[in-house]
Amino acid sequence: MDKISNSIKKILKEQQLAFSNQTVILAVSAGPDSMSLLAGFYQLSRQYDMKLIVAHVDHQLRPDSAAEYRLLREYCVARDITVLNKQWPIAEHPPKGLEASAREFRYSFFTELMRKYNASFIATAHHADDLLENILMKLIRSGDLREMTSPRAVVRQQERIVVRPLMGFSKKELLDYCQVNRIPFIVDETNQRDFTMRNRVRHHLVPLLKGENSQILQNALFMQEQVAQLDGLASSLVKRIPQPELLGKWHRGLFVGPRDALSDLETAQQALVYEKLIARYLQKSVKVDAKRLARLAKIDGGQVLELKQQVKLVVTRQHYFLVDAAQLELLLQTLPKHIAVDKQFVVGGDVFVVTKNKAALPNHILLGTFYAGETKTFGIRQVQPGDKVRLSDGAHQLVKKRFAPQGIPASVRNYFWGLTDEETRDYLWIDCAYTNQVIPKNSCHYAIYQVLKNSKEK
């Protein structure tokens, strides 16, 4: 085996990725980087009985894209390698964000193949020049150090594992490898034009930096390693503090945690912890500005920090709240107008049922109980700021006064919904806040449950 295949083997073993007698998805474009990856894995496959699935995406962005696939197919057919091609329909090309959309389309295809063939991982041909370009682009766009660690050698996600075993090589080394070993490739002509930021960085900034220091690529890899270590320390810190919980028993996209868990941290460290918690619980990557957080912390009450992707960070004296406003608003749009007793209903993908059955039900989580007159149906609606509830003496009270003792700030109360009397429209039950206090004669005791997805109850 040569230096490419040996390097791939070394990284796979270091990362404890199974490859002997395994199926592997290779993301290949027919450029010199991709063809080096394919050639290296082909050598490994002959020794370790690997099944290679070569995945090629025709983005239909340039005239020679079809020629790439022809070259790739000829190479693979001659070596009995399975090669699959998928076109990105021109009608799906967005007017803006073309690069990000193309990446999403590619990885969706690769992930689909990984599931279909039960592959061990997906391999791509990213190299050290890609990392340096990414660092420079992130420096220009945001200056966020944590964004400068990609592409990483291995990324483990719930739906896929992506390995980039050529990160230790420069673009020139891979080009030389193809030329010396007579491996065919096609150079993407669009990479020679300065119409994208990446190309401008590649053609003008990178050569200048390499001229100043020939070790710039090694420095970029060293920086990536250091930032990854610091990021790991931050993740360890987050795991040691008390974790936030769903607000109520069912709210997806709304978490609450104790603010004093972060009291010993500096504001910049708190901002980092909040970012980690948001990524972990809301599955969104956003930046929390430490200066804005510091100003917010000086104000009493439930102060809101509006972040990107419709994420909100709400801080009160005792708690912090992680809010995915987009998810919660979509959830509330699914509220039915009425629900029937003993019949399941759905809110935002979660299943619920109201019943007079007091026995513990398998695969059901009890959310609460309330008294109401004999009925077959209840109303259901989103809680509004001016809404009122009835007290035991018949008087009415603003619903906000029911939320306040629970420490739930005004900025998140409108994400709750409640059950109502069909005739009077009075609230009978609101999660975390209220249970009917007016008990009529001959009333019934009802329970509301969340039905777990593996339940077969109808």
UniProtKB/TrEMBL annotation:
Superkingdom of the source species: Bacteria
The entry sums up its family as follows: Belongs to the tRNA(Ile)-lysidine synthase family.
**GO annotation, cellular component aspect:** cytoplasm
Catalyzed reactions: cytidine(34) in tRNA(Ile2) + L-lysine + ATP = lysidine(34) in tRNA(Ile2) + AMP + diphosphate + H(+)
Subcellular localization(s) per the UniProt record: Cytoplasm
- Which Pfam families would you find in this protein's record? ATP_bind_3 (PF01171)
* Protein keywords: ATP-binding, Cytoplasm, Ligase, Nucleotide-binding, tRNA processing
Leader peptide range in chain numbering? none
Biological processes annotated in GO: tRNA modification
What's the protein called, per UniProt?
tRNA(Ile)-lysidine synthase
Source organism per entry reads: Amylolactobacillus amylophilus DSM 20533 = JCM 1125
Residue ranges of the tRNA(Ile)-lysidine/2-thiocytidine synthase N-terminal domain?
Answer: 24-203
Question: Could you tell me the EC number(s) of this protein?
Answer: 6.3.4.19
Name the InterPro entries for this protein. Answer: Rossmann-like_a/b/a_fold, TilS/TtcA_N, tRNA_Ile_lys_synt, tRNA_Ile_lys_synt_N
What job does the chain carry out?
Answer: Ligates lysine onto the cytidine present at position 34 of the AUA codon-specific tRNA(Ile) that contains the anticodon CAU, in an ATP-dependent manner. Cytidine is converted to lysidine, thus changing the amino acid specificity of the tRNA from methionine to isoleucine.
Q: Name one GO molecular function term.
A: tRNA(Ile)-lysidine synthase activity
